[in-house]
Amino acid sequence: MTKIKLLFLCMLCTTSLLAQDSQTSTRLLDKFFIEGSVLGTVKQHDIKTFGLQLNVGYDVLPKFHVFATCEGTTSLLDKENLKTYAETTILGGGIGYSLFRDPKGGIVDIRAMLGTSIGNVDWKQTTYGIGFQWKILKGVSPILGLGYRHVNSRTSSMPDMNVVYGTIGISL
Hints:
By secondary structure, the protein is mainly β. It has one helix at residues 2-18, and strands at 32-41, 47-61, 64-79, 82-101, 107-117, 125-135, 141-153, 161-171.
């Protein structure tokens, strides 16, 4: 019986995605987007993180998109009056869904992402995040983001973290 319920739920989700109205252009290049932003987190465990983020995405459906993300972050550590830092490069991807589109071209998205550190970095980690992003205008536009992030540390001297993050940047 649970298999039938699960199958019905999957069919319902698929039809709701396919039944979306066509508000976006049909040209292939209009479905791609590039975003560059500055990222910052609140302080937890005496660690504050900031960095640069680059997202490259594609609108699969009018309200559904996928994206690849690359982040270069620096975490400031302030433990026992000893100030130091740890650098990380994160590569990952995610999915997004447009909750609201206004007539001027602004979009409010909800996004989920997963990324992991690559290369020889100071802080090896896997990052999971969910948040909202607001693209203010159509075309080249400022973007603002706010969300929650879990950092699963793979470096023994660094703790796992649950933080609120914010972004500000530009979308092309």
